[in-house]
Design goal:
This is SGNH hydrolase-type esterase domain-containing protein. 44% of the residues lie in helices and 7% in strands. The chain is built from 4 helices and 3 strands, in the order αβαβαβα.
C-alpha cells in the first residue's frame, strides 16, 4: 500500500470465494502464526448476500465480531463495506440484493462501532458499466478497481497512523 514498512506491516489473507462461516476458523488458525495486529480489516460477506438470509448473516456477524474482539482484545476492528456488484450469483434481482447489501453494511457498521471499531465505506467504488472498476463479469474488481480499493485502505491506514502517532508519547 505504499506505506513505510518500518511503521506499518500489512498482512493480506484473501481467499477467493470465502464466506462468512469460514472467518473464525481462519482467524483461529492465523492467530498462531500472526503477531497481535493493531488493526484487523475485515472485507467479507458479499458471497453470503444472495445465499444467506440477511437476518442469519447479521446474527453470525454480531456473534463472530464479538468473538474476534475477545481473540484480539487490543486490536481495532475495521469493517470494509461489501462492495456493489452488477451481478449477484444465485439471484436474478441485482437491485434487490444491492438494497440488502446497503442495509447489511449499515447494520454491520453499527455492530463494529458498538465494539469500538470503525468502517471503510468505499463510496467511490460504483458498479456502473462505464466506470471501468469491474471486470466484465460484473462481480470482481478490475485492476483499476483494485487500485481504488487499495487506495481507500491506504487512506484509512495513513489517517489511523497519523492519529496513533499523535496519541503516543515520543520515545
Amino acid at each position: 500500500l505504499g506505506m513505510d514498512p518500518s511503521k506499518v506491516t500489512v498482512w493480506w489473507k484473501g481467499i477467493q470465494g470465502m464466506t462468512w462461516s469460514q472467518l473464525l476458523p481462519q482467524l483461529h488458525q492465523l492467530k498462531v502464526t500472526w503477531p497481535n495486529p493493531d488493526i484487523l480489516v475485515i472485507h467479507l460477506g458479499g458471497n453470503d448476500l444472495s445465499t444467506e438470509s440477511p437476518t442469519n448473516l447479521l446474527a453470525s456477524v454480531k456473534k463472530d465480531m464479538t468473538s474476534i474482539r475477545s481473540i484480539f482484545p487490543h486490536c481495532l476492528l475495521v469493517w470494509s463495506n461489501i462492495l456493489p456488484r452488477r451481478v449477484w450469483r444465485h439471484s436474478p434481482d441485482s437491485h434487490e440484493v444491492d438494497l440488502v447489501r446497503t442495509t447489511v453494511n449499515r447494520r454491520i457498521h453499527n455492530i463494529v462501532s458498538e465494539l469500538g471499531g470503525t468502517s471503510v465505506n468505499h463510496d467511490n467504488i460504483r458498479c456502473g458499466t462505464n466506470t471501468g472498476l469491474y471486470r466484465a463479469n460484473g462481480i470482481h474488481l478490475s485492476p483499476k478497481g483494485i487500485d481504488v480499493f487499495n487506495l481507500n485502505l491506504q487512506d484509512f491506514l495513513e489517517k489511523w497512523e497519523l492519529e496513533n502517532s499523535k496519541n503516543s508519547p515520543d520515545v
